[in-house]
Amino acid sequence: MGNYGTYVDKKWQDKWEATGLHNFDENAPGKKLYALEMFSYPSGAKLHAGHWFNYGPTDSWARFKKMQGYNVFQPMGFDAFGLPAENYAIKTGIHPKDSTMKNIETMEDQLKAMGAMFNWDHEVITCNPDYYKWTQWVFLKLFEKGLAYRKNAPVNWCPSCNTVLANEQVLEGHCERCDSEVQKKELTQWFFKITDYADELIEKLDELDWPEKTKAMQKHWIGKSKGAEVTFSVENSDIKFDVFTTRVDTLNGVTYVVLAPESVYVDSVTQPEYKNSVEEYKLQAQKQSDIERQSLTREKTGVFTGSYAINPITSERVPIWVADYVLATYGTGCVMAVPGHDDRDFAFATKYNLPIIRVIEGGDSLPYCDYGKLVNSNEFNDLIGDKAKEAIVKKLQEKNLGRWKVNYRLRDWLVSRQRYWGAPIPVVYCDKCGIVPVPESQLPVELPYDIEFTPDGKSPLSKNADFLNTTCPKCGNHATRESDTLDTFVCSSWYYLRYVDNNNSEIAFDSDKVNKLLPVDKYVGGPEHACMHLLYARFITKALRDMGYLNFDEPFKSLTHQGLILGPDGLKMSKSKGNTISPDDYIKEFGADVFRMYLMFGFAYSEGGAWSDDGIKSIGRFVDRVERILEEARDELSNNNNSKTTLEKAEKELNYARHYAIQHVTEDTEKFQFNTAIARMMEYTNALSKYLNEENKNAAFLKEALVDYIKLLAPFAPHFAEDQWEQLGETYSVFSTSWPTFDPNALIKDEVEIAIQISGKIRARMNVPTNYSEDEIKEAAINNETIISFLEGKSILKVIVVKGRLVNIVAK
Ligand code: ANZ
Ligand code: ZN
């Protein structure tokens, strides 16, 4: 198709813009539909094939919805703060703001070249003060409600990025961004209390139309675990500590207890002669990541503290050990070990020669990890499972040495970063007043442009005196600004709200407007966001709802993940492997429509796969063929001077293909099954081509079939279809017309083939009109030439008709 594509692209993009075809009018007729794609991160200079795979097909879906009569809102913007721009600045000396803004400009142009119907007048760019002012407002609101707080915490520290990482940014003990080994460090940090919403975040998952796998991942990440806390006291001391257990029924089987190396109890329980070995062990443990420490296969290690603890139910003394398979950050950081019924405890006890006893019946050998009748458990013998737990907890409660307890794996969200390129945290520290939030009227706390951002472990902002020194909003004395910035996930946790009312300079968003357009009807983005962005956004929505700003519970009603487009070699695209696909080159050669149509036809949307040049070429050829067929059809329309008006066999055949395509393109596109939808279009194309070869054509009917053809094609190849629509002489725009609906009658074939049996044996076949009654079918069968000859000399006893399939004549 030469450069036809690019020419047509530009022509229609200009016209769409000039006529405001994609502008969103909240008062326009039609049910609202909010289609949202995860906004992009302008860190690389350009959009890659993955962006296209996210945005192109989703835009096709949105266009399809628009043609179905929905009032579609499809905004776009940029998640513009974050580490990559800052790291790039450190490397090249180019200021993050400059590189980010330049990248955004390029990406905007590329997105426009895609021809998606984005509502650009609703764009948000999170690093602009008119956006982050309101990110700071969100922070202040959470602070007001006690949902943002400051505490000392061991944090994940990346020694190379010189920053704190969220748990989610640590992959197998390494920094997600630079792959350095992550260390632990104590720092005062800001947290959002997402754990307050842990239960609702689990429960409401059931109501969401999300991929099951994503829901399961979130559920696991939140990790609700029901168990008990049991208090052990240290022998010859006042110290008591709690353990968290999900198997309180095994309490009689405890033969030792374990403290995490970071537990606050370690130092106070360690006996003097054990101090050295414990200290050494603590240092060793610091270097291990939580993932390694939890590994089931890794050899268990630990040290004895020299102290003993008292089992609250048996009063037996058990040794207190320190071992890194116990995590400081889960439960209480202390564990009761039951080697008879827990794999890890069993391995540890075996290695260190600690007693192993059976308290649960079952299994041939120990460890036996299932439930069963209690043995060796005194008064609790013979109780099973929940009954046993209830009895033991009841006893513990009487002694005030235990209680039921629900634990979560989910931790509060660490939101402070010792980095420059983020939204400043809007609080100041005053010697007299302590932590003082910046009043809303003084927002935004602007990020200064001139900054020394070479990392040295300190926040770059803490080195900028102009920024740092301020006056206390409460008492007017000197105060110091918070110099940490917010995690970029805070910016992206509420952007879908700001889109609706992006130019509002008075408030973050108008609740009425937002309540009208949200929740988002369809959210599309990568599955890698399951436990971070998607969880944070749900939390922020719920928190703002509880403050009265929103009247809905969940931000994203329906979610679809696109798959990954791999390099032609089947590997993940990367510059170092040299297997990247640059969309721009292909757009230049084939045009935007062929590019996006290949992405839709060549892959199952949620699976993705390896890029293929042959694949895109074959789609190019398909579009060329469509172009020729449509041209031929137009010629036919202008030259056709026969007056045929009836629908005969050929017309009925095309009509069948037409309605079959309408039905299936509609159903499949709805479900993001673009590949099969386009396959149905190809079949319809073949039928159209076949019809054009007929001698005698019905022009009026052909016109109708063409109108539907172009409408069906429009979401997939928007520029091309708009152009063909014009050439067909129809009024602009094809996207303002309504999506065709299928006629079930056209899908009923006129005739069916029926088998005729004589006493169970097939003797003949015949075609009968589908609307024949049973009697008519009987009649036709008996009068069938072949059957007459078979029946000669026999008498018919019975005739059985199975409609649409067969007739069985019982004869003797
Ligand atoms: C005694 C016991 C006996 C346990 C038994 C299990 C089986 P979930 O389901 O993930 O909540 N545990 C508790 N805190 C821990 C920590 N900080 N680090 C490592 N392990 C910890 O797991 C709860 C179980 O994990 C708890 O129940 C505890 O071991 C262990 F036959 O207590 B159990
Ligand atoms: Zn003050």
Automatic annotation (TrEMBL):
InterPro entries: Leu-tRNA-ligase, Leu_tRNA-synth_edit, M/V/L/I-tRNA-synth_anticd-bd, Methionyl/Leucyl_tRNA_Synth, Rossmann-like_a/b/a_fold, tRNAsynth_Ia_anticodon-bd, Val/Leu/Ile-tRNA-synth_edit
The protein's enzyme class: ligase
Gene Ontology BP annotations: leucyl-tRNA aminoacylation
Signal peptide stretch: none
EC number(s) from the headed UniProt entry: 6.1.1.4
GO annotations of cellular component type: cytosol
Binding sites annotated in the UniProt record for ATP: K575
Primary subcellular site in the record, as a coarse category: cytoplasm
Reactions performed catalytically: tRNA(Leu) + L-leucine + ATP = L-leucyl-tRNA(Leu) + AMP + diphosphate
Domain Methionyl/Valyl/Leucyl/Isoleucyl-tRNA synthetase anticodon-binding: 658-774
Residue ranges occupied by any Leucyl-tRNA synthetase editing domain in the UniProt entry: 219-396
Compartment(s) where it occurs, according to its Swiss-Prot or TrEMBL record: Cytoplasm
Ranges for domain Methionyl/Leucyl tRNA synthetase: 41-184, 568-602
Coiled coil location: 623-653
Keyword Iron among UniProt keywords: no
Tree of life domain: Bacteria
Motif 'KMSKS' region, residue numbers: 572-576
NCBIfam families recorded: leuS_bact
Family: Belongs to the class-I aminoacyl-tRNA synthetase family.
Protein name: Leucine--tRNA ligase
Lineage: Bacteria, Bacillati, Bacillota, Clostridia, Eubacteriales
Gene: leuS
